[in-house]
Specification:
about 210 residues; 6 helices; alpha/beta; Rossmann fold; globular; 6-stranded mixed beta sheet
Length: about 210
């Protein structure tokens, strides 16, 4: 049985300050650091005691800090990957969320949603964003490890899961999975039929009291 634990980073400063995240390199808040440790201990409790675990993470600060906290508990050195970053919002990154809300052009209900230009200079299209995440996930899946942790971001998590279930990237125009800060999503693949399961989606019970 192969298991991948997809973790979305917990509370970060851009959340508290009402700023656009994306590639803006914000750090975890003090509360977020406690939450990251709680995530690590939750994963330790769910994993076999003698399991060898690989940890992969977006290379942005808030995810790298989360992955380090998890790796400290699981005795694993995180591998940082550019491909697991959140969507780039270009010049909106680090600006007030209201600034982006006033300018962003939402995708059409029908038509080219993957190649849609949101009207913000430097912002990734969904096609570029999804393909980048798919490439990162596929490289992780090429490794034989039975226990892997992937630390990423709320929007990027959708494409980690979509890649896992074999959704063609060109079919991702409408897909969206709920992902809260600090959530854990459990992905499993059995050894007989090799079916891929989303066993748990966006579990945040481990954050109670943090």
């Amino acid at each position: 049985m192969r298991t991948i634990w997809v973790v979305t980073h917990p509370e970060s400063n851009h959340h508290i300050d009402g700023l656009v995240g994306g590639w803006f390199d914000s750090s975890l808040t003090e509360r977020g650091q406690h939450q990251a440790a709680a995530i690590g201990h939750e994963l330790r409790a769910r994993l076999p005691v003698d399991a060898e675990v690989e940890v992969f993470s977006s290379d942005l600060l808030r995810t790298a800090q989360t992955a380090t906290a998890i790796g400290d508990v699981l005795d694993a050195e995180p591998v940082l990957m550019h491909g697991l970053r959140e969507k780039s919002y270009g010049e909106a990154g680090g600006r007030p969320q209201a600034w982006l809300d006033e300018r962003l052009v939402p995708p059409p209900a029908d038509g080219d949603r993957m190649g849609h230009d949101e009207g913000v200079a430097g912002s990734e299209t969904k096609a570029v964003f999804a393909s980048r995440v798919y490439d990162a996930v596929e490289s992780i899946l090429e490794r034989p490890s039975e226990h892997q942790v992937v630390v990423t971001h709320g929007f990027a998590m959708t494409f980690v899961v979509a890649c896992w279930i074999g959704m063609p990237v060109e079919s991702c125009g409408y897909v969206n999975f709920r992902a809260r800060s600090g959530g854990i999503t459990e992905l499993r693949q059995d050894d007989h039929f090799h079916n891929r399961q989303v066993a748990a989606l966006d579990d945040v019970r481990h954050l109670d009291g943090t």
